[in-house]
Write a structure and sequence with these properties.
The chain is an all-alpha fold. The protein contains 18 helices and no strands. Helix 1 runs parallel beside helix 15.
Length: about 375
């Protein structure tokens, strides 16, 4: 078995993971749209509600990091490592979602009754991490909506293993373009380009024909585009990075980082003027690629800020924040109602205060879950030190 040297951690990427996890959390705070305070209503309607676009960052970054951290491992050892990372949290949120549905005597997504045949099928698809491949909202959003992402990510890890392996020569660095399998690289580039062209056509057809019933799945969830479009793009960005860095070596790193960050923010603002399915996921390869390129060296002024403790902490708990925040924003008014009807009414009326409490509670809950799930690693680290 052969491996490569340990890569440096690109801390700016870690910070952006935390920022994007917050963006997804923000997009779910739809109650702010009806806030009596015009600041919160305007901020949500014109910026926060588009935070779900950050999902593209996670898929492209997953592809990049899969290639960047590549080690020559047997498939069974590789996939066990990935499962060890993602499955405990996936199982945790599923059990928590089932528990909440029983405690509240609630149905699960669009009238799927507890204990029904569909409920059992949904449970199996959640446990096996396959639910995103069923184009029915009551299935791919069942039990715990955000976990559709894990469903796609797991399959991408399997596909990505063989793709990166085809690009990897023994004892060579996947990011070293000189040692890459150029024919495989060209083939992967063509597949990625075709995936993006097909997805563009899908978005345009959905918009032109007003196919609202399948718009969410085809233009946003679409696991095939996420895997063969965004995931492959991340791998390609890593593979081409040495050549890209050489071409931009004379550019000022701080200016490059600022421009990339402003472009990222600008794409959110453009949502207010362009209401197209293309903006759901397809177009986000532009700002995300700029972010990955601009911050690769961790050398500019924004990177210095991103390396700060708070942003690194946020990045470290980003996976847990993404996977658990739904329980906080949905559970907060329920818990308040258990305390008193007046408290629940006050919380719902004061939307801004509710948002701030939800934000802080979500980060704290994610941190606690992170500590629990990583207790073994922490103990091992303490023994080493």
């Amino acid at each position: 078995m052969h491996g490569i040297e340990k890569k440096r951690q690109i801390k700016s990427y870690n910070a952006f993971r935390g920022i994007c996890a917050l963006g997804i959390l923000f997009s779910h705070m739809s109650y702010l749209s009806d806030a009596s305070n015009p600041f919160w209503a305007t901020f949500y309607d014109h910026f926060m509600k588009y935070g779900s676009r950050c999902t593209s960052f996670f898929f492209i970054m997953s592809g990049f990091l899969l290639a960047y951290t590549w080690k020559e491992l047997p498939f069974n050892k590789y996939i066990k490592g990935k499962l060890k990372r993602i499955y405990p949290l996936t199982l945790f949120v599923f059990i928590l979602a089932v528990g909440c549905s029983f405690i509240l005597n609630d149905t699960v997504n669009e009238g799927v009754a507890i204990g029904s045949t569909q409920w059992i099928i949904n449970a199996v698809l959640n446990i096996t991490m396959l639910k995103a491949f069923v184009p029915v909202e009551s299935v791919f959003y069942s039990f715990h909506g955000p976990s559709w992402y894990i469903s796609v990510l797991f399959i991408f890890y399997i596909v990505g293993y063989f793709i990166v392996k085809s690009l990897k020569n023994k004892n060579s660095n996947i990011c070293d373009k000189r040692n890459s399998n150029r024919k495989a690289l060209l083939f992967i580039s063509v597949v990625c380009a075709i995936a993006y062209l097909i997805q563009l056509a899908v978005c345009l057809v959905v918009d032109i024909n007003a196919l609202s019933d399948c718009q969410l799945y085809l233009t946003y969830i679409n696991p095939y585009f996420r895997i063969f479009g965004e995931g492959l793009l991340g791998i390609l960005l890593c593979e081409y990075m040495p050549a890209i860095r050489e071409k931009i070596s004379n550019l000022n790193k701080s200016i490059l980082e600022i421009v990339a960050f402003l472009a990222f923010i600008g794409f959110f603002l453009v949502n207010n003027f362009i209401h197209s399915s293309v903006w759901s996921a397809w177009i986000w390869f532009v700002p995300v690629s700029l972010i990955i390129i601009a911050y690769n060296e961790d050398a500019g002024i924004v990177s210095k800020i991103a390396k700060g403790r708070f942003w690194q902490f946020l990045g470290n708990v980003s996976f847990e924040l993404y996977m658990t925040h739904a329980f906080v924003y949905e559970g907060l008014p329920v818990i308040a109602g258990v305390v008193s009807t007046e408290l629940k009414g006050w919380l719902i009326y004061h939307a801004g205060t509710r948002f701030l409490i939800t934000l802080v509670a979500s980060v704290i809950f994610a941190w606690v879950v992170h500590l629990i799930l990583n207790i073994g690693k922490l103990k091992k680290k303490q023994r080493v030190n």
